[in-house]
TrEMBL record, chain A:
Belongs to the ABC transporter superfamily. It comes from the Bacteria. PROSITE patterns: ABC_TRANSPORTER_2. It comes from Sphingomicrobium lutaoense. This is ABC-2 type transport system ATP-binding protein. It holds the Pfam family ABC_tran. InterPro entries: AAA+_ATPase, ABC_transporter-like_ATP-bd, P-loop_NTPase. Residues 8-235 form the ABC transporter domain.
From TrEMBL, chain B:
It comes from Sphingomicrobium lutaoense. The keyword Transmembrane applies. It comes from the Bacteria. This is ABC-2 type transport system permease protein. It holds the Pfam family ABC2_membrane_3. The chain crosses the membrane at residues 27-47, 189-207, 236-258, 278-300, 312-332, 364-385. Keywords: Membrane, Transmembrane, Transmembrane helix. It is a multi-pass membrane protein. GO terms for molecular function: ABC-type transporter activity. It is found in: Membrane.
Amino acid sequence: MTNSRFAAQADRLIKYFDGKRAVDGVSLSVPEGSIFGILGPNGAGKTTTIRMMLGIIDPDEGHRTLLGSDRPLSVAHDVGYLPEERGLYPAMTAKEAIAFMGALRNLPLAEGRRRAPELLARHGLEEWVDKPIRSLSKGMAQTVQLLGTIVHDPKLIVLDEPFSGLDAINQGKLEEMIRAQAARGTTVIFSTHVIAHAERLCEQVAIIAKGKVAFSGAVDEARGRLRPVVHLKTRAADGPWQSALPPGAKPNGGGEYVFELPESGPEPLLKALIDGDAGIETLSIERPGLHDAFVAIAGQAAADEMEQGR
Amino acid sequence: MRWPEWIRAAFVIARRDYQATVFSKTFLFFLLGPLFPLALGALFGGVGNQIARGDEQSPRIAVVSSVEDYGKLVEAQARIAPVIPRIARVEMVHVAPSDDLVRQRQEILAGGQGDVIGVLEDPLGEEPHFIGGTGGDNSSVKQLALFIEEARQAEAAPPGRTQLKLTQQERVAASIETVRKLLARAGQMLLFVLTLLLSTMLLSQMLEEKGNKVIEVLAAAVPIDSIFVGKLFAMLAISLTGIFVWFLAGAAMLAFFYEPGAGVNVLGAGPAIGWPVYLLLIPVYFAMSYLLIGAAFLGIGAQASTAREVQILSMPVTMFQVVLLLIAFAGVGRPDSWQAIGAAVFPLSSPFAMLGRAAEDAALWPHLLALAWQALWVALILKFASRMFKRSVLKSGPRGEWRKWFGRPARQ
């Protein structure tokens, strides 16, 4: 099962909580150096899966490897983890908090104290180096914790719902930080229930719903599961060109047809529209987004839950 | 030398906890807390003693006699006085007889010779006479009668010089036995109070991490065992810091107020194992007691998720400690009885029982055996507690088994 090309692998992980399967046979393979998204609504089993992969809790069945080891805590020095529930000691200064998090993962305290001010300065927090955490805003505290997650230069970074609670500006900064880490060759795994973040950042995703993996692979592959969508508006309401449209395609309230591109491709459709004097007003062929793929893979109900969780 | 990873991680956790606690303002209150009753006790004790001394000055008696007779009386007093409690001993003042004895007596009783309670006339004559006011039990007059009797006998024959040869034997002399029993119970009480005061703090130790939500950061980076060991030893170090400060304060007070010869001679009798080893065993057994009970409390407290739950837990936990003390008390005075051995074998009461044993029995090897036994149980309890913690606490799904019974119903 162990494969050096993968930074993390899970094989049929199962976890019961009070007799109920919270995670039901999850399998994942995270390629080294990739940005990997775990997508799913709240309560889908994302956090429990992450906790099992990191060795915080043990699976009831199945097994996992992290950086090639089946004892995840033995490689904890090369891992950085930002949990969903952020937590720092309020009385600690920002510098000490970062150094302490590094020390937990074997970075000498003195080195952590040396790196912390540099990291804080790079993220515009130089004035807060010696300020206690309790005096920082929520966004600042989250940045401090994130810096504590990367201070020891880990090979793998795991971020559980890193965007939640951040405003748009800080979300943008976080995306930049994730890309910068990936550019250095660090593998980044993050969970989210916001499809847009996964779509912008990830090369690979796993879609988890009700404790099971509904899809795992490249984002393009997920989107490729759906046919492109045609948006068509014509001046003529009727005509022989309609036979080129898929059966059941009807105009919506605005007179626009929305349908999947037929297997035969765009050319026969275009020819039929022109030859049949449809009077094309607007025509677009759009590649489906990850949201559409998610709806197709996990179902509308799961997609609705994701929307509610935002 | 490289430490094993779990010890290194435990040290990182312990260092953080120790610094966060000891270098905080609230630690000053923690240190001062036990000093308040000590200082008040010393203050009121000192004032009380002063008042007592003022009230109970030795009764002074004027002795109207020849210098020769007075000398004999003083010699007799010197022979008898050691067996009379110091506070009750009469103090004699010599007054040479004048021509008018009646008038002289009146002048003395009116305060002419200072503060005296009475006048003793012609002590070694035919009819010794005491005129004055004595306490309710007439002990002053009885002492005077004894002095006179002793002086008269000494005139008839020289006083005896009998010397009693004294050989101190361990566990034979009833007096030493009593003192050591006292010492055993006092040591156990001290251990109990310190453990009670300090170990209940461990109940809320994990609450901070849960409240701050730091627990997951810790659990993802280091083994849960390291978190438990780190927290436990940090609290032990914090407690020992406090005990060291209190010990210094106590020693300073003792040096200031201690009067040799007053009260029971505990220092002289000493514990059977000897003072140096006994004084070493107190912090060692405190550490063991703290680690044993603390490991259990840390495990129990780790299951609690609110301060309210911790408060509810602390009462049965305190009662449990009282039971441990009573078990250890049962063996005092009979170090080889089944009660004493049973209390020493039961891990949680073992430190109390063994400290009691140290006061009464000189053998050292049982302590080495007991310490190894206790250390084994510290490891076992810690392992069990951390496993429980890992099983029941770190899950994002429904609430844990423990809280299902003791907490509020799960919110769906």
